[in-house]
Amino acid sequence: MNLFLRKVAPMLLVLLGAAHFASADIVSLNFEPSNDDEAFEVLYRQLPAFELNADVGEALRNEGVNRAYRATFNGHDGEVRYLLFKETGVNEKASVTMYEALVLMNLAGTRLHVDKRGNYKELVVKKTFNADMGSFVSVVSPNSLFAEGYKYMEIEFFYKKNQGICVRAFLYNDTGFVGNNKNESDFYKNYASFTFMEKTKKGKYIRPAQQKTD
């Protein structure tokens, strides 16, 4: 069992116990962290505002980070980190939401100070990320190793059936990093920074330049 799973195991037991008492059906969370491109992969878009952080570091890898970028939005520095969780079985919407809550507690800390949260429209996440579901949580003063050195986090969850969950976390120390004007803010101009890929019948990923030949 890797470090991420060992850390979240106690929270997982609590969530599953609560789900068991709340419903006659036992909820099964069929996800696990993935760093295997063959098992689960997304297409990252290398945007001009992003600088790949090749040296993610062992500590962040233990937190489950698959890829990280340094970014400067609206004159303020921050980071963009991606975590992938492959789907290992059939999950209902409640199962997806519960696993995302588990990941959130691990990344932001248990003393959550949530500023905003919500769900994205399915048509928007389908068009932008080729995902089936999407949601976001804005956190102030996170108290976790993952967020060490940062005052703010914007955590987004995108789920694609039969593939998994892509978590995108923005970390920054000045709210100007996000900005308010969606038409002018660098944050929103660089928003479509990844997409889920489709697969062939043989289960191979189809990249933009690849033809459906198999």
Give short descriptive properties of this protein:
214 residues; alpha+beta; eight-stranded antiparallel β-sheet; two-stranded antiparallel sheet
Structural overview:
The protein has helices spanning 3-22, 58-62, 93-108, 122-129, 186-189; strands at residues 31-33, 42-44, 50-52, 65-73, 76-87, 114-119, 133-140, 152-160, 164-172, 194-196, 198-199, 205-206. The protein is α+β, with helices and mostly antiparallel strands. The longest helix has 20 residues, at 3-22.
Class inferred from helices and paired strands: alpha+beta
Helix percent reads 10-25%
Please tally the β strands and state the result: 12
Uncertain spans: 1-6, 8-24
Radius of gyration: 17 Å
Ends distance: 35 Å
Mean pLDDT: 82
Strand content: 25-35%
Count of helices? Answer: 5
Helices and strands, with pairings:
Blueprint: H1 3-22, E1 31-33, E2 42-44, E3 50-52, H2 58-62, E4 65-73, E5 76-87, H3 93-108, E6 114-119, H4 122-129, E7 133-140, E8 152-160, E9 164-172, H5 186-189, E10 194-196, E11 198-199, E12 205-206
Could you give a short description of this structure?
With 214 residues, this protein is an alpha+beta fold.
